[in-house]
Every structure is written in structure tokens, then in C-alpha cells.
Write a structure and sequence with these properties.
Blueprint: E1 11-14, E2 49-54, E3 57-61, H1 65-78, E4 94-98, E5 102-105, H2 111-118, H3 139-152, E6 156-159, H4 163-171, E7 226-232, E8 258-262, E9 278-282, E10 290-291, E11 295-298, H5 301-308, H6 314-323, H7 330-345, H8 351-360, H9 367-376, E12 383-385, E13 391-395, E14 398-402, E15 415-419, E16 423-426, H10 432-439, H11 460-471, E17 477-480, H12 484-492, H13 503-506, H14 526-531, E18 557-564, E19 583-590, E20 606-610, E21 618-619, E22 623-626
Parallel strand pairs: 1-2, 7-10, 18-21
Antiparallel strand pairs: 2-5, 3-4, 5-11, 6-11, 7-8, 8-9, 12-13, 13-16, 14-15, 16-22, 17-22, 18-19, 19-20
Length: 627
């Protein structure tokens, strides 16, 4: 099981170089040192949170008397009874030193990110959706989020920022009321403006990142949602820490239940979204407009290694080595990484993946095996013969569009399918001679056709029995029926039309499988077709497709592994067999047969039969993988 967080929560870390002043900090590609993430590194995980590295430095925290005067004047334009006490908790202004750098969210935590960890949200803006900031969360519920996140991530420890860290990051080196200057405009932040909303209108949250960032790349530090911080609320800044740490005690028992919110929200006037603006709320209460942004620290090497030492996650060791390239356990990490990468590619037929392994580990413990593997990789159309005379053709991995827009409803909707690894498949349909060699008898109706004709009159169950006995011979291959996707991919051989060639050149079907060519449009009775000599023909009598496969269309219809589904909606696109949608008693037949009308002899055509059905129209071909 991988311990690395990319499989779980989704975080991107954007790092900037550390400086000792609170100025805008450019990205750099300077090399990492032990215990420090490489500067400029970006870490991406499925939930998509981005954390930006904020350097240590000093700043003036809080509001000057002049700023309080201006905020009060602005407030009274909207609220004539606005009192100065509303802003006095931002004073007195004092110099604070942030002694250690920290990570902080580039954006507020979104609805989608909260749900990824917590499962649900209390409030949501329906028009905005998963990319809106989560709101209605209490300070205490955030502690549960942090506990879960920290259990998931081996490399980072998450928390709320302290109030001092928050304001330091919001100001981004500025000393004005807003990080954008003395004033703020409605195109710079999401807040309630008299010019923007009437009394009848009600504002709402915007998708994170809808407004431009401050100088340090942080969005929505002004407005959108008020952001919980770590601190207990205090009525002013007198005698508070000047080292950036949180206030976590109070002599006022009443204030112990209140925590601080910073930045204001979409419901706030401009005077309440300043860099110094602060308010309080009970820590066990969540209301609309209140959200959060994460802070984090990089764990020490001694904390990280025990958590990944037994991991089987490649990304765990890549991340560890990126952070601690000269760490105490770097040698063991490189050895384990090489082992895991080789295990992930040693069975692949993707030449590029094996070459990538060799490029990364040219002197690795498995380099010789990788070079041998490259030498022995088959190419498209390579043919191997097994002990009973079956010829197997190599079909490489790839993508194709499965189904037909002009076909039956069960061939739709068309969809792109990825065949993730190559496979061997019968060059021909299984013949009567091969069946008799394995099974000891011949069930075919057209025995007179001869041993080189396809076996028919076999059910899906019969075909699986044959494959089980073939596998028991342990001839170096593991056999199965192809999945429906594998079959169509092999049949098309890179083509997108109904067929891979002209019908009469590539297929035995109703018009040409008898003694004389006939127009079968008016003939639907198999017996009448047989009166004309309609029957199976020896395999390989028509032209092959581009992969070198014969009779993929016509001769006999071919069983595949899948349950029959009435259409392709909801089915996986990974090339595997459908064993969930539909009734397993009914399986799929592909390719049509000697008795089929030409309109059915198409790469996308499919029919259903009971798994127990036997018919002179039905046979199969095998898929194989090396043991």
C-alpha cells in the first residue's frame, strides 16, 4: 500500500526561496539540501490544494490609528451607528518577527477538497459547486480535518496558520490597508460593496482564484470567506506574542470559547476585508461565510523515514529523495525505489517504460534483466507457435474508438478505449484438429470440412473448458478468451471503418460461403443456405488484417469473455472484460459467421447468446499471455 498522499488527498506545493525580508520572492531551481524540499518544486495530488512557501521576516501587525480612523469613516457611510470599538481589537500596531518559514494555502480550502477527506459539507453554494470555498465549518470541525490529513500524509504536518502568520502572508510585504494598496476595488476581491449589491441582492462565495493574487501568489486573502486561524480571540494586541506564535490561552474565561477569523467574507464591507481586519466566533459553531486555508510544515527526515520504509509506493521514495537526497537513509531509499520501478515495468511490453527504467537506473540491480527484456520484446505481427500448432500473433498496446455511430444501439455510445498492455491472440480461429488434440473429440457440425476448419457447435462454457485443459499443459502461455474490447481492437488493427478491407476479400459470409455466390438478401433460413453448400471454410483462406489476423470477420462467430450489455453506457474503458453489467448467463459473440448477411460482418457488430448455446455458427479464438 502506498503511504504517499497522492493516492489520497490531493495537494500541490509551490515553493519559493527563503529570504530574511518580507519582500516578493521569485521562484528558483536551486538544488535541494538535506531536509529541505527542492526550491521551485510543485507537488500535485488529486484534491488539488496548492500550498505556497512563505519566507521568514518581520512586519508591522495590526492597524495604525490613522487606518482605524479611515475604516470607521468608511463604516459610517454604510452604518451611521458604527462605533470605533469595532476596530480597536486591531490595535496597538506592533512589530512581529516570523522566525520560521511556513507553507500556506494558495487558495481557501474548497468544497471538493473538504468532501475528499470529510465526506460531506454542511453548506454549499449550488451555483458555484466543488470549486467554491467550503463554508459553514466550525473551528473544531477543522481540527478533525487536520487530524485526518496528518494521518494520511507522511511528509507534511497540517494546521491552521497563526493569526500573525495569516496577516504576514496577507500583507505580502505591504503596509497599506490592503495588499493591493490603500483602497480595494470590486474586481480585486469578493466583498459586499454598495456599488455592487442592492439591499434586495445577497452576495455569495466565488470560485477560489476568481480574483487576482497578492504579491506572494495568494488568492482571496481579502474577502470571499472569513478564514479561521489558530488563535484564541483577544480584545486587542496588547502584550501579545511578537514571534509569530499563536495565542492559545486567555485570562478572560469568556473569550476562551472564541477563535479568530481573518480576511472578511463576501458578506463584509470593504472596511472589514483589510489585511488587519479580525473578528471572533464560537469555536464550536459553523455559519455561512466562515471557511479556512491550510498551513503546513515539512516533517523532519527522522519523522518521514519510519512512515515510508515499508511502503510499496514509488512516489513515496521519489518524494523522500527529493527532500532528503543526502539523508541518512537515502541509499536504502534509492535501492527500494529501483526495486519498485523494476517491479512495475518488468512484465510490461511497453518499450518506452523499460527504456525509462534504464535511463534512471543504468547501473541498477536489474539493468541486465531490463536489457534482455528489451531485446526479447515482440513487435506487432510477431508470430509464435505453441506445441499443438496454434499460431499466436503479438498485438501491441494502444487506444482505439470502440463501437459504431452508424450501427445498432448495442454498439453505442462509441468511446475511446485504452488497451494498456499488448497480448498474443490466435492468428486463426481454433481449428477442429486443435480442439480434438486437447479435448479428444470433435463436436463440429461441418466435420467434412476437415481438421483445418474452425471448430464450431461449441458453447461459451465449452470454450472455457478447452482453455482450462490447454492451460493445464503448462506450455509457457496462459490462455483465455479475449475481452470484447481486446477482440475489436485486434480486429480493427488500426482501422476506423466498418471493416478492415473489402468484404469479399476478407470474410466468408452468406454471399460467398456456398458452392456459388448468391444474393442472400432474401434468404434467412440457414438450411436453404446450406443447400447451396453454405458452410465454414478452412482458416486463413481470406486476406488478413494489418496485424496478420485471419477470419476476424466471418467464417464462425467468436465467443468473447464478456457479459452481454444492451449498450456501452457505464462500462469501463480500460480494455478489460465486462463482468458486471448485464446477465452473466448471456455472453457476447463477435465477428459474425459464414451464414451472416454482409450488414452484420463488421468490426463493431455484436450479438448475444446464452453461455450454454451451441451452434454451427459459433467458434472462438484464444488470447494468451506469457507465464
Amino acid at each position: 500500500m502506498s503511504i504517499f498522499l497522492t493516492a489520497t488527498f490531493g495537494l500541490i506545493f509551490v515553493l519559493f526561496p527563503i529570504t530574511v525580508t518580507a519582500q516578493t520572492v521569485p521562484a528558483t531551481s536551486a538544488p535541494a539540501t538535506s531536509g529541505v524540499v527542492a526550491l521551485g518544486t510543485v507537488r500535485t495530488t488529486p484534491a488539488g490544494i496548492e500550498l505556497v512557501w512563505i519566507p521568514p521576516g518581520e512586519f508591522m501587525m495590526g492597524s495604525s490609528e490613522a487606518e482605524v480612523d479611515e475604516a470607521l469613516a468608511e463604516c459610517r457611510k454604510r452604518e451611521p451607528d458604527c462605533l470605533r470599538v469595532r476596530f480597536e481589537d486591531e490595535t496597538p500596531q506592533r512589530r512581529v518577527s516570523i522566525r520560521e518559514g511556513f507553507f500556506i494555502g494558495k487558495y481557501e480550502v474548497t468544497v471538493g477538497q473538504w468532501r475528499a477527506v470529510m465526506g460531506s459539507v454542511r453548506f454549499n453554494t449550488l451555483e458555484c459547486g466543488r470549486d467554491c470555498p467550503v463554508e459553514g465549518v466550525s473551528w473544531r470541525s477543522i481540527q478533525e480535518l487536520l487530524e485526518k490529513l496528518n494521518a494520511l500524509d507522511t511528509f507534511y504536518e497540517y494546521r491552521l496558520p497563526t493569526e500573525a502568520e495569516w496577516e504576514y502572508a496577507a500583507r505580502a510585504g505591504t503596509t497599506t490597508a490592503y495588499s493591493f494598496g490603500k483602497d480595494i476595488k470590486t474586481n480585486q476581491a469578493n466583498f459586499r460593496s454598495d456599488q455592487q449589491y442592492s439591499d434586495e441582492e445577497w452576495p455569495e462565495a466565488a470560485k477560489v482564484g476568481s480574483y487576482g493574487p497578492n504579491a506572494w501568489g495568494l488568492h482571496d486573502m481579502h474577502g470571499n470567506v472569513s478564514e479561521w486561524v489558530r488563535d484564541i480571540y483577544t480584545s486587542n494586541h496588547i502584550n501579545l506574542p511578537v514571534d509569530g506564535s499563536a495565542v492559545e490561552s486567555s485570562q478572560d474565561e469568556y473569550l476562551l470559547k472564541f477563535r479568530v477569523l481573518r480576511g472578511g467574507s463576501y458578506q463584509s464591507g470593504p472596511f472589514d476585508v483589510r489585511s488587519a481586519s479580525r473578528t471572533r466566533w464560537p469555536d464550536d459553531s459553523g455559519v455561512i461565510g466562515n471557511g479556512l486555508r491550510l498551513a503546513a510544515r515539512l516533517r523532519k527526515e527522522s519523522e518521514v523515514w519510519p512512515g515510508i520504509e515499508r511502503s510499496d509506493g514509488i512516489d513515496d521514495f521519489r518524494q523522500y529523495l527529493g527532500m532528503f537526497p543526502e539523508g541518512r537513509n537515502a541509499g536504502a531509499a534509492r535501492k527500494r525505489l529501483e526495486e519498485l520501478v523494476w517491479n512495475s515495468v518488468k512484465a510490461t511490453h511497453d518499450r518506452g517504460k523499460i527504456e525509462a527504467y534504464l535511463a534512471e537506473f543504468p547501473d541498477g540491480a536489474n539493468a541486465a534483466a531490463a536489457k534482455t527484456r528489451l531485446r526479447d520484446l515482440p513487435t506487432a505481427g510477431t508470430v509464435r507457435r505453441n506445441p499443438i500448432g496454434m499460431e499466436l500473433v503479438w498485438v501491441p498496446f494502444g487506444e482505439f474508438v470502440m463501437g459504431s455511430e452508424n450501427g445498432k444501439s448495442d454498439e453505442q455510445p462509441v468511446r475511446k478505449v485504452t488497451i494498456g498492455d499488448g497480448f498474443w491472440i490466435g492468428r486463426f480461429e481454433v481449428t477442429q484438429r486443435q480442439w480434438e488434440t486437447v479435448m479428444g473429440s470433435n463436436p463440429s457440425y461441418f466435420k467434412k470440412c476437415g481438421g483445418n476448419c474452425p471448430v464450431e457447435n461449441v458453447s461459451w462454457i465449452d470454450a472455457r473448458d478447452f482453455i482450462a485443459r490447454l492451460n493445464a499443459r503448462n506450455d509457457g502461455f496462459v490462455y483465455s478468451l479475449p475481452s470484447e474490447a481486446q477482440w475489436e481492437y485486434a480486429a480493427r488493427a488500426g482501422t476506423t471503418d466498418d471493416r478492415y478491407g473489402d468484404l469479399d476479400d476478407i470474410a466468408w459470409y452468406v454471399n460467398n460461403s456456398g458452392n456459388i455466390d448468391i444474393d442472400a438478401d432474401a434468404i434467412s433460413d440457414v438450411t436453404r443456405l446450406m443447400d447451396n453448400g453454405g458452410r465454414t471454410r478452412p482458416v486463413g483462406g481470406k486476406q488478413p488484417n494489418a496485424f496478420g489476423l485471419f477470419d476476424m470477420l466471418g467464417n464462425v462467430g467468436e465467443w468473447v469473455e464478456d457479459f452481454y450489455s444492451p449498450d456501452y453506457r457505464g462500462l469501463a474503458a480500460d480494455g478489460g472484460a465486462n463482468l458486471t453489467v448485464g446477465d452473466g448467463a448471456f455472453r457476447v459473440q463477435r465477428g459474425a459467421s459464414w451464414a451472416s448477411n454482409g450488414s452484420r460482418v463488421r468490426s463493431a457488430y455484436r450479438e448475444q447468446y446464452r453461455a450454454s448455446d451451441r451452434s454451427r455458427l459459433l467458434g472462438f479464438r484464444v488470447l494468451a499471455r506469457l507465464r
